[in-house]
Design a protein that fits this description.
The chain is mostly helical. The chain contains four helices and no strands. The protein has helices at residues 2-29, 43-66, 72-94, 104-128. Helix 2 packs across helix 3 (72-94) and helix 2 packs across helix 4. The chain is globular.
Length: 136
C-alpha cells in the first residue's frame, strides 16, 4: 500500500502540473491570433519566456523527485532538452493554426525561458530543501 500512495503522490504533485501546463500551452496555441494591441513591443516574447521558464521549473522539479540521485547537470540537460523540444513542437503546431505562424524568435524565447527556469530551480529552489543526514 505504501508504494501505491507514493506513486499517487508523485503523479498528483509532480507530474500533473507538468501535464496541465503543457496542455494549457497547446490549447492556447490552438486559437487564432490575438486581435488586441500588444501591451508593449514584443510582449509575446516576454510571455513565451515566462511560460516556458515555469514549465522548465516544473519539469526540473518532477525529474529531481523521480531521480533524486541524478546530478544537477543531468537534470538540467534533460529539462532544457524536453522543454525546448516541446517549444519547437508548439511552434510547428502554430504553423497550422489560422492567423498564427511559427516563429524562430518565439522558439528562441522558449529556449531562453527553459534555460532560465531550469537554472532558477537548480540554483535556488532545490537548494532550499534540506537533505537527509545533514544538520541544515
Amino acid at each position: 500500500m505504501r508504494q501505491s500512495s507514493n506513486k499517487l503522490f508523485l503523479n498528483f504533485f509532480y507530474r500533473l502540473p507538468v501535464i496541465a501546463l503543457s496542455v494549457f500551452i497547446f490549447w492556447q496555441s490552438s486559437y487564432p491570433g490575438m486581435i488586441s494591441e500588444p501591451l508593449f513591443p514584443h510582449d509575446d516574447k516576454f510571455f513565451h519566456f515566462g511560460i516556458y521558464a515555469l514549465l522548465a521549473l516544473l519539469v526540473a522539479r518532477a525529474v529531481k523527485k523521480e531521480r533524486p540521485m541524478w546530478v544537477s547537470g543531468k537534470i538540467s540537460l534533460i529539462t532544457i532538452l524536453f522543454v525546448s523540444v516541446f517549444g519547437l513542437s508548439d511552434e510547428f503546431h502554430q504553423a497550422f493554426v489560422p492567423e498564427r505562424f511559427a516563429s524562430a524568435l518565439d522558439f528562441l524565447a522558449d529556449c531562453a525561458g527553459s534555460i532560465a527556469g531550469c537554472l532558477f530551480y537548480i540554483n535556488f529552489v532545490s537548494k532550499k530543501t534540506p537533505r537527509r543526514g545533514t544538520n541544515a
